[in-house]
Automatic annotation (TrEMBL):
The keyword Oxidoreductase applies. Keywords: FAD, Flavoprotein, Oxidoreductase, Peroxisome. This is D-amino-acid oxidase. GO terms for cellular component: peroxisomal matrix. Its cofactor is FAD. FAD binds at residues 45-46. InterPro entries: DAO, FAD-dep_OxRdtase. It is found in: Peroxisome matrix. GO terms for biological process: D-amino acid catabolic process. The lineage of its organism: Eukaryota, Fungi, Dikarya, Ascomycota, Pezizomycotina. Pfam families: DAO (PF01266).
Length: 357
């Protein structure tokens, strides 16, 4: 396949990973984005993520496929490419005694989960290893990504392979075809607009809504990553702890509030998050309780949740060939390589189609 001119809308983890794989396939790529790594904005999800590999995308077969495909690459980066800002961490997953499992945690807390053969070091905890209030648990080797390092790392990799970056806001998706750096019309436009796919002209996907996440970033160190099957404070709240690589602090979460666009910190929720995390992992503060937490900042990010799952599809809009890659909700990093590989395959199909026209 010869080199084609591609415009990618978006510089989140989806846009950057896709641009990188397209450029490695020798395409000539321009990325156009309203927000870039370095920005912290409620419309830009990627910097707010933990981010780790906790496959909890319940019963969505395609997301399992994408997560399966992504694990080896994240592990390679963690073990062989320190400048990517990713490190290997133990994922410790506990089932809480006495409360039903939160529906979206079902896959992750299964003691024979679908990803058992994908991840390294999977095993069940012995009873005596469990924290107070937990009835069982599992552990495996996972990764934690420092997004403040990893997103710029992806930009650097893209630049190395000749990707050109532009700042801008695309009003209608078909307009992006005129934004290739060569000044010529792009052959394909790739849509990685995340949550804003619900507003982008020509797409306006009303199945996309936010799943709001609130976090507390602290200086305290955690001996591993933790999550639980449920929390006592409701089905749209959760517990997770993950220490980012290379001094990125430890993320304490969180919640999963569908349809909530609020960028404001909810202080009561922040208190509940900190208490839950210190209860499950007292080592965070060396036994000093919540008062021992050293807070860097509070944060809110909006996950791009899509009814029916993420959209990796091709179509023609106003005569422009488009491939979509958006809607990864809470698993955009852990599925990033699988999703981007499928996107690249659809770009190839679109180009073959155009050769026949
Ligand atoms: C608190 C929290 C914790 C999370 N934890 C994890 C985790 O542990 N593991 C994991 O895998 N995932 C996690 N996620 C989910 C993950 O962050 C998202 O799935 C992922 O970041 C989505 O990336 P994206 O590239 O699709 O969207 P975004 O990062 O939002 O990027 C969208 C891009 O499109 C651009 N754009 C949009 N519209 C336009 C337009 N009209 N014109 C120009 N540019 C436009 C934006 O400016 C931006 O550059 C978490 C999310 C949150 C909020």
């Amino acid at each position: 396949m010869s080199s084609a001119k591609i415009v990618v809308i978006g510089a989140g983890v989806a846009g950057l990973t896709t641009a990188l794989l397209l450029a490695k396939s020798r395409h000539s790529v321009t990325v156009i984005a309203k927000h870039m790594p370095g920005d912290y904005d409620i419309e830009y999800t990627s910097p707010w993520a933990g981010a780790n590999y906790f496959p909890f995308s319940i019963a969505e077969d395609s997301s399992r496929k994408w997560e399966r495909a992504t694990y080896p690459e994240l592990m390679r980066l963690a073990t062989q490419v320190p400048e990517s800002g990713i490190h290997v961490q133990d994922a410790n997953i506990f089932i809480v005694d006495g409360i039903p499992i939160t529906p979206f945690m079902k896959d992750l807390v299964d003691d024979k989960p679908w990803f058992k053969g994908v991840v390294q070091g999977f095993r069940k905890f012995d009873k005596e290893e469990l924290p107070k209030g937990m009835k069982s648990g599992t552990t495996f080797k996972s990764v934690c990504i420092n997004t403040a390092i990893y997103l710029p790392y992806l930009v650097g990799q893209c630049l190395k392979y000749g990707v050109v970056f532009k700042r801008g806001i695309v009003k209608h998706i078909a307009d992006a075809a005129d934004l290739h750096f060569s000044g010529k019309k792009a052959d394909v436009v790739v849509n990685c607009s995340g949550l804003l796919a619900c507003k982008l002209g020509g797409v306006e996907d009303k199945k996309v809504i936010p799943a709001r996440g609130q976090i507390v970033l602290v200086r305290n160190e955690a001996p591993g990553m933790y999550t639980t099957s449920a929390v006592h404070d409701g089905d749209d709240e959760m517990l997770y702890i993950m220490m980012r690589a290379a001094g990125g602090g430890t993320i304490l979460g969180g919640c999963y509030q569908k349809g909530n666009w609020s960028p404001e910190i909810d202080p009561n929720l922040a208190n509940r998050i900190m208490k839950r995390c210190v209860d499950v992992c007292p080592e965070l503060t060396g036994g000093k309780g919540v008062e021992g937490l050293d807070i860097i900042r509070h944060g809110v990010g909006l996950r791009p949740w899509r009814e029916g799952g993420a959209r990796i599809e091709k179509e023609v809009i106003n005569g422009v060939r488009v491939v979509h890659n958006y809607g990864a909700a809470g698993w955009g990093y852990q599925a990033s390589y699988g999703m981007s590989e499928d996107t690249v395959a659809l770009v190839k199909e679109s180009l073959n189609l155009s050769a026949k026209l």
